[in-house]
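Usage

Read records sequentially. Each one opens with the input sequence:
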Amino acid sequence: MYNLNVNIVLQMTEDEEARALPILLRHSPGMLLPNRTYMVSRDAVKQLRQAGVQFIALSTDSSAPSLEEVASGERI
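and closes with the structure output:
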């Protein structure tokens, strides 16, 4: 069973962002949003935590459907 990548929205300070950027560039095909807010993968969050980068998790998308739960042609 293959699950879609689960995204986490997080926000950090300017100082923490400077520390996080090299990690994010290596570990996540994330998305940059306004106000130092990022949408990243669980792996990226794990790497940030291991590096001691502090951030606020604003949202997690833990209810993403698996491919088996999505009808053919359905937007997810």
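Summary fields computed downstream for this record:
- The two ends are 17 Å apart (CA to CA).
- Helices lie at 14-27, 42-50.
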